Structures are given as C-alpha cells and as structure tokens.
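User: Hi! I'm working on a homework problem where we have to compare a predicted structure to a textbook description. Could you give me the structure for the chain below?
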Amino acid sequence: MSVRGQGEDLYASSSRAVFAIGVDVGGTFCRAALVNQDGDVLNRTSVTTQIDCGVDGLIASLSELIESACNVPFLHGATKGWLPVGLAIPGLIDGRAAILDGAVVTRCVNLPFLEGISLHEELAERVGLKVYLLSDITAATWAEKRVADAERFVHLRIGTGVGCGVYVGGELQELARSGGGHPDILVCDESSRAVTCPCGLRGCLEMYVGGGRFDTSDSGEVFLAAQRIGAVISRIDASFSPERIALGGGVIEHTPELFLAIRKSRQANERPGEAIVSIVDKARLANDAGVIGAAMLAAYQNRQSPAL
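Assistant: Happy to help. Predicted structure tokens:
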C-alpha cells in the first residue's frame, strides 16, 4: 500500500493505536523502540549495525532489539503477541520510497546484502509478530511531519547515507529517481567534475556530505558541505515551495557548526526583494524519528488489515 492518497486519515487512524514497535536499520546503528499512541517513546534500545554478518546476523540482531524494546513491566507475553512492528530500512521498497507495506528491498546502497530480500517476512518468522516493511525516510518524514507546524513539509536527512521526504497536498510524495536510487532532487553538483554515487545518481549529495565524507573539524570543509546542502535546499524550494524544511540525521546532529553554516549561507544568498519562504530548522525528533514513524505507520497498517 502506498502512502499516496491517504492524506490526513493516516494521522487520525495511527493515533488511535495503543502500542507498536519501531525498528530503524541504519548503516551505522540499528534502533528499536516501543511507542505509544501519542508517538511517545516508552522504551528504546540500539546496537551497532553488523554489516559483516549478512542477513542472518542482522535478523538475529534485530530480534534481540525487539525483545529488549518490549522489556517493560506493563507488557506480558499475551500482550506482546499482537504488537505490530514497523521495519524501516535505508533504501527502496518495491522500487519506491513512499510505501507502507512493501514486499522486497529493491535498493539499499549502504547495506547491499539486503537487496532482493523480503526482510520483514524473515524477521516476522523469527519474532512471531506482524512486521511491515517501509523506507527509513518515509518513517522519519512521517514522524517529523506530526510535530511540525507546516502543511507543506520536507525532511532532509543526512547520516551515513542521505534521504529526502516530501509531504505536500495531504500526502507523502514519490520523488523522481532517474538513477534508480536516491531521488534526483538530491543532486548538489552539476559540474563536469561531479562524482557518481553507487546509487547511480551523478552529483548525489551523499558522495559529498554523507558520514565520513568530509572532515567535520575543518571549517573549510564544513563550509563547502554547507554549500552542497544549500544547493539541494534551493532545489527543494524551487520544486515544492515548502513552509518548513527539517534537517536531521547523524551528520547534522553531531556537527552543530554545519547547521549554522547552512543557515548563514542561506541568508547570504537571499536576493534583495525576494524573501525566503521556507524555514530551515533542525529536525525535532533526532534519532527517534525513524523508530517513531515506523511504529506509528505499522500501527496504522495493522488497523487496516481485514484480518483484524
């Protein structure tokens, strides 16, 4: 099922669920959390992503995370058995990003061993719970949109990898992807020297500012990274005219100088007589965005199941 066309009904429906588990698989960390109907994290846990252990090792690690997230006094065996799980991965599901209940991981640049795998089915068999597969940027955008005061909203996430989620017209948008991986709107370099990302996108932002791509202690490199991100923000402004753009992810969270440089660059590039419409802020939910969004979208999907 795609997010498109569901509109505000998703917010109303997901808020009526009681508990759900959100799992956010990242290139550096895997996180899990037990989330209530208001989007509050009741218990959270995380581990380093075991890239060298393959699918079996990842599933074993995620199973332990889910068990740990459920380790709270008010949950007992019978209650745990009906908890839905939202599994967010850093890639495309069924060739798309804006989808809530996909079948196969079709593109996962930073964890390529997941491609072609029905990861949610294997995890569901292991933990005995219903698992819904979705992209991490869909989950994070959903969660950040819920706490943002904006009807036209964009979430730009920069961590080990990069991602962009757009919510306009009452729905999450599926973005154009000419390279088959990251969306075209993440192009930050159109010069002849532009680097091609493993995702297939030439000049992709990930190749310039993804985790470990630049020295965060070097003011010159931080300034250049801010310029690259600013170029993408300009593309976002031109394409969607959002009211608010929330910047999140590990690189943003752990490099405060970068966010300040982005804001200064944006102000410096403002043309006389042309006010910048969109507000650029830090994402409010930090590392919890993925698990909160995954949990609440799983709760929504679980309520829509004809088997319930």
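For your comparison, note the following. The chain has ten helices and twelve strands. The chain has two domains: 9-139+288-304, 150-283. Good luck with the assignment!
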